[in-house]
Each structure stands twice: as C-alpha cells, then as structure tokens.
Amino acid sequence: MVGAGQLARMTQQAAIALGIDLRVLANSRDESAAKVIVDTRLGDYRDLADLREFAKGCAAVTFDHEHVPTEHIQDLIDDGYAVHPGPEALVHAQDKAVMRERLTEIGVPCPAWARVSEAADVEAFAEEHGWPVVVKSVRGGYDGRGVWVCSSAEDAREPLEAGIPLIAEAFVPFERELAVLVARSPHGQGVSYPVVETVQKDGICVEVIAPAPGLVGEDAAAAQHIALKIAQELGVTGLLAVEMFATKTGLVVNELAMRPHNSGHWTIEGARTSQFEQHLRAVLNLPLGSPALAAPVVVMVNLLGGADPDVFSRYEHVMANDPGVKIHFYGKEVRPGRKIGHVTALGVELAEVRARAWHAADCLKGPVDA
Amino acid sequence: MVGAGQLARMTQQAAIALGIDLRVLANSRDESAAKVIVDTRLGDYRDLADLREFAKGCAAVTFDHEHVPTEHIQDLIDDGYAVHPGPEALVHAQDKAVMRERLTEIGVPCPAWARVSEAADVEAFAEEHGWPVVVKSVRGGYDGRGVWVCSSAEDAREPLEAGIPLIAEAFVPFERELAVLVARSPHGQGVSYPVVETVQKDGICVEVIAPAPGLVGEDAAAAQHIALKIAQELGVTGLLAVEMFATKTGLVVNELAMRPHNSGHWTIEGARTSQFEQHLRAVLNLPLGSPALAAPVVVMVNLLGGADPDVFSRYEHVMANDPGVKIHFYGKEVRPGRKIGHVTALGVELAEVRARAWHAADCLKGPVDA
C-alpha cells in the first residue's frame, strides 16, 4: 500500500487477520501506519524509482491516497505489477474534470459544471446557473482544501491567479449528504455496503450514520445502483466511495474516492466485513465479503484534535461511561482540528446511539481552548 | 507482552485500534507476532536480564504464555514495573499443585487430586478413586502435553521416571466441557463473557460454541460466578480462562489460564469487546469493555495444519462459498496438526453456524495426507 496514513494503519488490522504481509511506502517512520507495520519502506510516492523499488515482490499494489501520478501507475503495470485501482480508473478520483466528463457521459446525475480559467468564465457560468458558484481545483482537492464557494468572481481570484486547472460547479441545495461504499474485484464481482448519511462541518466529515435514516427500498437501491454502475463503467478495482447530495429532485454525485474512506470506518465493527478487509480482498482478486450490518444502527464520529494532546488520559472516563463504545486512535500527533481517530457506537435506537458516539468523541477531544 | 505467538499477534490488532504501542519479547523475528509488531525485541523470557531490558519504559508488562519464571516476575515488580498478572496470581496457572491447593481452600469444585512421586502413590490414589487416573506434570503442561491418562501405574512410568513433580487427578466422567473467560483489573473491576462450550480432540481445542447451548439462567450464572470468584480470590489482573467439566452432579474446574485464550477467539467478531482489547484494558487498569454477544450464536473452529502448506490458495473457495465467515491465519509455518489459525461464523441457528465454521476450517486445512 502506497501511503502510510490511518487508512493503511487500519488496513493492517485486517491484514493481520488474513495473514497477509502488508508493506507500506511511507514518508517517515513517524507516520500512522509506519508505527504498526514491520515492512515499512521509506520513499517518495511521486518518484517512479522509489515506487519500482517498493513494488518489488508485491502480489498487488494499492493506495491509501490518490496522489500517485497516473503515469507512474501505468509504468508499474507495464513492469508487470498488479495495481488496483488501475490508472484508467484512478484518474477519475484524481482529476475532477475527467470525472465530471465521464460521469456525464454514462448518465450519472452531476451538478452543472464547466472548466474555468478566468473570472469571465466564472461570471458566465453564474449567469446560467446562479450564484454561489463552487470553484474546485481539478487535481489535489482533499477534505475541503481546493474548494472555493464563491458569491462573486472576486471570491475565485486566488485560485484563478494561481493558474491551476479549475472547474466551476453549480451549488447544489441539498437536503443531506449520503455516501455509498462499494467494492469491485478484478473478476468483476461487486458489492455495496448499505447507504450511509454523512455529516460535514467546515468541509470535514464529522459523523456517519449507517444505514442512512429513513432511506429504504427503491431509494436506497437507487443510490447503490449509481455507485455500482460507476465502479463497473470506470473499471474500478478495490473500494469506491461515492459521495452524493440528496436533493428534492433526486441524487447528485459529488465526489469519488478509490480507497478505504472515512465514510466506511463504521464497518470495522458495524459490518460483517470491514472496508479494510474488503479492499484487501478486492485488490487480491479474492471473493468479496458480506457487507451486512452487524447491528441495526451504527454511528461513527470523527475524533478531531483539541487543545490538550493527552487523549489517552481521557480514555478512563469514556470507557467507564460506556463499556460498548469503540475507540480508534491513529497514533498521530495531536493538533487542533486534525483527524486523530474516531469512535463507533452500535445499537438499536438512533438518537441513543448518536448521543453515545458524540459523548465519547467530545470527551476524548477534551478542551478546545488551551 | 512477553511472548510473540498468535495471542500477541491478535493483541496487536486491538492495540492498533486503541493507539497503544505494543512491544513484544520474541525468540525470533519469524514468530507470529514479531511479523506484525514493529517494536519486537529479541530475548529469552527465562533470563532476568533480558526481561529487565525488555521492560524498560513499558507502562505495563503482561504475557502471551505462562512460562516466565515466577521469581523473575517478582523481580520486575520490585524494580517498579506494573506486571499483570502478578506472580502470586500467575503461579496458579503455572503450578497445578498450587492451583489445586488454593481452589480446594476457597471451596471451588475440583477433581479429587494428590501429589504423586512413585508408582505406589498412583496405585494408592487409584484404590481410592478408581482407574483411570490422570497424571499431570505440575509445571509446563500445555495443550495436552504433560498429561497422561493412566489405566495402570505402568502408564505413568515415563513421567514418574523423569522425576518431575506430578499430581494425580480422578478421571472426571464429564458430559461436556465449558469455559468461562473473565477479566479483572487492578482496580478490582470484573466482567465475565458468556459461558462457552469447548470441544477437544486429542487434547487440543478444536471448536468453541458461544454461548454454551442450553445453558441458561442460574446454571450459566453459577459457572460465571466460579470464574469471577477465582479471579478475585487469586488476585488475577488481566484475563482468566477457567476450563470446566460439566458433570451430572455439577461443575468441576479443570484448568486455569491467565492470558487471552483459545476459548475466547470467538470474541473478536462475536463480542462487543474482543478478549484482546479486554486484556489490554485490564492490564492498563482501564475500565473494562462490554462482553455482550454481537450475534445470537458464534462458533469458532481452530484451523490445524494439513499436508499442503499453501493455505492461501484455498481462501478463494472458502470466501466464495461463505462471504460472512471470518478467516484468521497466524502467519506461522504450516505443519500437520499445528494450530495455524481459526475461523469464526456468526448467525442465529446453531446447526447452520456450526456447519459453516467447520466447512471453512476443513477447506482451509486442505488434504490431510500428502
């Protein structure tokens, strides 16, 4: 696995169970996954020589982020390595313009969009679709960075002047956000986890509710169908997370990710097969695991860093208060606002399960101000 | 954790979630846990200097086996380390004579027993309690080694001539075997997992059924009460597994183990808190986690090595046949009859869940003869 963040770290838990020797390419031995993976190699994921050295002897190569240059992935495939997802698929999670073109082509509902490179383009787009306009960098967007919600062309001056490729998208007045996590293997087998509701704050996912409350029958199946269709049409191998807006008039696809995803952390305890095991199965071309829920309601709340870095000192209260809540701490340096872990609660009654998960996360975060 | 077998390996999965830096003392880098734990130290658990070097900087020291000399554990405590379980407790899992004396003293039902050192002792014991007589080495028994079921004193000649300390126990005509896994923290908090039924073959545990079929209400509570009482009276910190015989006239305690135990592997997916997380919580003096079942029926079947070591090649069939079965493979060299992993199935109907678990284990084992 190229990259050694928390996604690789949690993948190691699944790899240990299956007896799979997981190797990671890390920037430093201090990274989240490097602390728990013996076969950690240091190198630069942007450097083809480093990638080639890293891949030697691997049965499959995959990623914990989308930043490996597409052309390097092709080179690894040309060398004979099994790389999942492959470059033709992954480019849709790397390049938002390519993604929008392709999704439009295969009939997946998207916001209105256009490539823009100067203020006049943004104004022309707004004339047709109205303000606000959402300007996005075509590459490198992640967790809200690289997205500018603009009330005027002036708000887009910074990215426009940076000269980076940009697209404009119509602002979608959504009722809530949903996500569908699917897996697809090189054999072509596909499975979908239940649709979840995601709650974002300041562009960061803070909460995931599985299954999405009140979404049943055909509406849930429609969302899963969109995600499975994208996986198949784009030739995704491994996991695909499809973030969607639920609007009054239906679903609109927002973003794609081709790796384990924050919207799937609940599956560790909440589904029969965790997303991390599922990703390993898919990239190794093994039959996929059951995505069935392990409890009627599962809620995951992200743990963001607070002012006091000593999270461990707060375990005692949280564990004593709720013996059933599951704590995940990524072994990362604690900085205010940084994703440093998550908590998961399982149960039957939504309000009760949400309250438990939020209480645990709030307590673990500790004081916000020093 | 002193020792680097599969118990330490599975403890690492729980340690990763909680952000706990797990260090192991291994005999070699090829051991099961050494392959997945970055902070692996090499050394001899029988050597006090190695243990002292290993313990430096550890918040707590614990074990994946019972073979560390009791006096060395006391030395580590005298050095100021938190060692769980402590030597006064652990000696009861190391020395069967000490265990029988103490359990008898606190009124826990045991088989009739006596220390024996020559053939005449065994014959005298048999005269009172009948044949067969179960002769056991006082120290070092593990998984059926060190136990001789004797129809005559002649059958005990080998251990008697070896001059090792022995006890004789009356053979218990049991209906089935049960096990109760409890945890106790230094604070004195105790929790019990549901009672399970264990199935042994040739002295090796092959199957665990949770909860024990047909054991309800006061009968289940009585078994849990015995285990919690032993934990408290012996001052156990960490996990305690109590193996019991269910007889027509009640429960009889067979063996004790003070560590994660084969009879608790089902808890990884089958309980809200896995035994490995529970052990970490207990030895770190954190509040204990919920032992609640995650499904109505959970069955674990041990995976023993067959003639063909390529277990991985059989994953495809097992995973395709049953997307819900959970495979655990310990990364150990495959040898015929050796415990190399386990599988767990969860569900509602006992016969169906057992069939699934056995099918998966049988398939993974592969051919018995080369």
TrEMBL record, chains A, B:
GO terms for cellular component: cytosol. Belongs to the PurK/PurT family. This is N5-carboxyaminoimidazole ribonucleotide synthase. It holds the Pfam family ATP-grasp. HAMAP family: PurK. Catalyzes the ATP-dependent conversion of 5-aminoimidazole ribonucleotide (AIR) and HCO(3)(-) to N5-carboxyaminoimidazole ribonucleotide (N5-CAIR). Keywords: ATP-binding, Ligase, Nucleotide-binding, Purine biosynthesis. It comes from Planotetraspora thailandica. ATP binds at K96, K136, E169, A170, F171, V172, E177, N254, E255. One of its GO terms (molecular function) is ATP binding. Residues 100-284 form the ATP-grasp domain. Homodimer. Its EC number is 6.3.4.18. Signal peptide: none annotated. It catalyses: 5-amino-1-(5-phospho-beta-D-ribosyl)imidazole + hydrogencarbonate + ATP = 5-carboxyamino-1-(5-phospho-D-ribosyl)imidazole + ADP + phosphate + 2 H(+). One of its GO terms (biological process) is 'de novo' IMP biosynthetic process. Pathway: Purine metabolism; IMP biosynthesis via de novo pathway; 5-amino-1-(5-phospho-D-ribosyl)imidazole-4-carboxylate from 5-amino-1-(5-phospho-D-ribosyl)imidazole (N5-CAIR route): step 1/2.
